[in-house]
Amino acid sequence: xxxxxxxxxxxxxxxxxxxxxxxxxxxxxxxxxxxxxxxxxxxxxxxxxxxxxxxxxxxxxxxxxxxxxxxxxxxxxxxxxxxxxxxxxxxxxxxxxxxxxxxxxxxxxxxxxxxxxxxxxxxxxxxxxxxxxxxxxxxxxxxxxxxxxxxxxxxxxxxxxxxxxxxxxxxxxxxxxxxxxxxxxxxxxxx
Length: 191
Fold this sequence. Notes:
There is one protein chain. It is built from 4 helices and 8 strands, in the order E-E-E-E-H-H-H-E-E-E-E-H. By secondary structure, the chain is α+β, with helices and mostly antiparallel strands. Strands 1-2-3-4-5-6-7-8 form an 8-stranded mixed β-sheet. The protein is globular. The protein has one domain. The protein starts with a strand and ends with a helix. It is 26% helix and 27% strand. It has helices at 65-76, 78-102, 109-114, 182-188, and strands at residues 2-3, 11-13, 17-22, 48-53, 128-140, 143-152, 160-165, 168-173.
């Protein structure tokens, strides 16, 4: 089943509405369109990513007004959102790096080469890549939360997830942060 909406790319039903979105800010990062956000190419991403609208088990209902607002806001403020997401990942990178290195013998040159110290967020381009954008059903102030699922070198099994509300980063963690709704639920009802 397909849904047609002039404000959306073509969407098909696959337990949620799925389509494709172009986000220029994430082009030239790693291409992570493989299973579970695995690398699918040695060539950097072209900026096209999987787009999902989660219906929270309601079936083949169209995206809500809050989801449409969030999607439009993302497209209109894409560079600003990407900058906030990248800054949040960069802020967490020292912790991610330490956790990765803890799994290896101290001073292991391969481990050190995989997750080197970084002087700027821009250097993350060669270490991570966006796989999908999930527009969640939960909202705050009539705008839905948007999750970004990444593959990354420091967590090949669980990936990386960032949850946002407009350009505010709500949570950074494993890939599930981008789609499970827990962070959105906690934030939506937090006064």
